[in-house]
């Protein structure tokens, strides 16, 4: 079966912009105390809930993976872009990074104690999100924690340039109430929400728990 066009476009674009992107997002992350606070809360509930490995899905250059590891969880990164994974491995050689897609993670059922998708569902068409959230649910253990970060709105954006290079992806702004609904359908309960005013668009962070099966 041919690969979905949005995956091909996203991989190609991020392979192109990877070096410029890595420099910029690391600086932005250093200026984001509220985002780091959500990651800190996520790491704490993972640790107190029994631990287990944490997947940083759409890890980019690996800075969030490294931050999570410093917070005391066993984090590894997965990204669609081979160039991003190369940068992450070079920057953090002590950590594990793999090429992969959030629509089909190469992980066993219930393997994870936590999963982070930090601004990485941005290029996923909304109609594909149920597939992504089902995959997140499959790979998390019962009671496992999920942290999502995304831009808020109703628009579909189709930029031609980003980070100083041509790109071919689409970007989707999402409503927190809609994401909460989709997570509920996938078997998650949202336990915390943070809304932020970003430079261009509002931003949202949702912390959710995989519901344990009813006895």
UniProtKB/TrEMBL annotation:
Keywords of the record: Methyltransferase, Transferase
CDD domains documented for this protein: AdoMet_MTases
Entries under InterPro entries matching the protein: Methyltransf_25, SAM-dependent_MTases_sf
Domain of life: Bacteria
One example of a Gene Ontology biological process annotation: methylation
A single MF term (Gene Ontology): methyltransferase activity
Pfam families given in the database record: Methyltransf_25 (PF13649)
Domain Methyltransferase: 54-144
Annotated protein name in UniProt: Class I SAM-dependent methyltransferase
Species name: Streptacidiphilus alkalitolerans
């Amino acid at each position: 079966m041919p690969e979905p066009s949005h995956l091909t476009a996203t991989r190609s674009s991020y392979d192109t912009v990877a070096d410029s992107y890595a420099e910029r997002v690391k600086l932005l992350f250093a200026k984001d105390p509220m985002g780091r606070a959500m990651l800190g809360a996520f790491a704490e509930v993972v640790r107190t809930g029994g631990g287990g490995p944490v997947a940083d899905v759409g890890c980019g250059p690996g800075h969030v993976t490294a931050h999570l590891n410093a917070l005391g969880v066993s984090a590894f990164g997965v990204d669609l872009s081979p160039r991003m994974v190369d940068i992450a491995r070079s920057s953090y050689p002590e950590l594990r990074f793999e090429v992969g897609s959030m629509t089909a993670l190469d992980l066993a059922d219930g393997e994870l104690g936590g999963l982070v998708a930090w601004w990485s569902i941005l290029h996923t068409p909304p109609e594909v999100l149920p597939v992504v959230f089902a995959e997140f649910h499959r790979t998390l253990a019962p009671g496992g924690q999920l942290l999502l970060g995304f831009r808020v709105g109703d628009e579909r954006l189709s930029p031609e340039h980003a980070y100083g290079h041509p790109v071919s992806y689409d970007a989707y702004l999402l409503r927190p109430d809609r994401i909460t609904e989709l997570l509920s359908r996938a078997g998650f309960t949202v336990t915390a929400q943070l809304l932020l005013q970003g430079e261009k668009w509002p931003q949202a962070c949702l912390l959710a728990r995989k519901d344990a099966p009813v006895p």
